[in-house]
Design brief:
This protein is of the alpha/beta class. The chain has helices spanning about 15-25, 35-45, 55-60, 95-105, 125-135, 175-185, 200-230, 235-240, 260-270, 280-290, 290-305, 330-340, 355-360, 385-390, 395-400; strands at about 5-10, 30, 65, 75-80, 110-115, 145-150, 165-170, 190-195, 310-315, 345-350, 375-380, 400-410, 425. Helix 6 (about 175-185) links the parallel strand 7 (about 165-170) and strand 8. Helix 4 packs parallel to helix 5, helix 7 (about 200-230) crosses helix 9 (about 260-270) and helix 7 (about 200-230) crosses helix 10 (about 280-290). About 45% of the residues are buried. Bound molecules: nicotinamide-adenine-dinucleotide. Nicotinamide-adenine-dinucleotide binds near residues 34, 99 and 102.
Length: about 425
Amino acid sequence: MSELKKIAVIGLGYVGLPLAIHLARHYPVTGLDIDTNRVSELLSGQDRTNEIDDSVLKSSSLEITDQVTAIENSDIYIVTVPTPVDVNKQPDLTAVRGASRLVGGVLKKGAIVVYESTVYPGVTEDVAGPELEAASGLICGADFFLGYSPERINPGDKQHTVDKITKVVAGQNDQVTAVLSEVYGRLTSGGIFVARDIRTAEAAKVIENAQRDINIAFINEVATIFQKMGLSVYDVLEAAGTKWNFLNFSPGLVGGHCIGVDPFYLAHSATANGHHPEIILAGRRINDGMGGYVAECIARELTQLGKGAGAKILVLGLTFKENVPDLRNSRVIDIIQALQGRGFSVKVHDAYADRDEAETLFGISLRPSLEDASGYDCLVGAVPHQAYAEFDPESFATLLTADGLVADVKGMWRSLKLPENFARWQL
Ligand SMILES: NC(=O)c1ccc[n+]([C@@H]2O[C@H](COP(=O)([O-])OP(=O)(O)OC[C@H]3O[C@@H](n4cnc5c(N)ncnc54)[C@H](O)[C@@H]3O)[C@@H](O)[C@H]2O)c1
C-alpha cells in the first residue's frame, strides 16, 4: 500500500489544479485537461484563477497535459470536472460522463477512480461506474474500484486550502478506503474523515452547500422585510450576532459554481425519490430573486431623487464573489439587466474579471479602469473587492455627481462617512 502511487487528476480548474499541485509534492502526478487553452496557459506558468502562484506552478513537478496517453498506467484517477445544471436546473453530468469515458479508455486492472466533483448521491456508482465499465471493458468492483472525496475549497480563500482542510473519503471497499485515506492523509494536515460509504460522502457534500444557500436565503428574506420597515439588516445582524448560537450569514447575491447550483442536485435526488423539496427550492427562489430585488430598490431610490430613465449608473464588481476573477453564474448580471430594463444607462467595472470573458459570458463590455470615470448618478457596490472596499470619501466625490446615490449592496461602505450631499442605500 505504501508504494508510490502514480496519480492522474482529470480537470485542472479551481479544484483540480490546487489538488494536483499539492499531491505532486508527495506523488508522481499528471494533470489532464481537455481545454487546450487552459493547458497552454498552465504550461506557460500562469493560472488565471489565481489559486496557485505562478512561482509555485513553475516549480512544481506536476506534469500538465491534454494528451490522454500521458495518464495511461496511473494507479489512481481523481476526477475534478464541472457539474453544472442545464437550462431546466437539472444536473448536467456531461463532463462527469465524458471524463469517465476518457479514463475508461486507459484504465488498467486494479486502478482506483475517485470523484471530487459535487454530485447527488449515486452518481459515482450509478453513472460514472457504468461509463468506466463501458469504455474499459473492465468490471467495476472487481477489476477497478471507485471512490469519492468531496472538495471543500472556496475560491479566493487562502486560509482553508486543500492541504489544510479535513478531507472526507469513501471507497468502494475497505482496501480502497485505506488507500485513499493514506493518499489524502499525506495531502492534508486537516485529517481524514472516513464516510460510511460513497453515497454518504456524496450526500454530505451536497448538503454542506445547500445548507449555506438556505441560511443565506433566510437572511435575504429578513433583509427584504426590514427594508419595508426602514431597518438595516446589517444593524439587526450585528445585534443578533451577539447571541452565542446565532449563525453568522450576510445578505446578498448567491452566484458561482457551487452554492447556487448544488441545491438543485439535492432537489433532483429528492424528486427522484418521491419527495417534493420545499425549503431547498424556496431558498433557491429567494436567492435567485435578489438581483431583481436590489435593482428595484435602487431604481426606487433614484426615482425619488428625481433621476429617472437615462440616469448614469456605474456598477462596481461583476464576479460572483469578492477578490476572485470567477465570473461563472454571477448574479450581478441580474441587477445590471434589471436596471437596463428600466432605461438606466449602466456601465460596469471589475477589479479582477477578464474583459473578454465578461463579454463572452454576459455581453458586458467592462470599463478598462476607473481612471477618468466621473459624472455617475449612482454607484452600485455589487462585489466587495478590496479595491472598492478601500474607497475613501474622495473616491465617491470623483465618481459621482454632486447629488449622487451610493448603493451599497454588500454593506462594504457601512462604516464610511460619506459627504452629506450623497444619498445612500443599503440592504
Ligand atoms: N470551485 C470551487 O471552489 C469548488 C469547490 C468545491 C467543489 N467544487 C466542485 O468541483 C468540481 C469542479 O469545479 P471547478 O470549479 O474546479 O470547475 P472548473 O470549471 O474551474 O474546472 C474544471 C476543469 O475541467 C475541465 N474538463 C471538463 N470536462 C473535462 C473532461 N471530460 N476531461 C478533462 N477535463 C475536463 C475543464 O476544461 C476545466 O478546466 C465541480 O463539481 C464543482 O461543483 C468546486
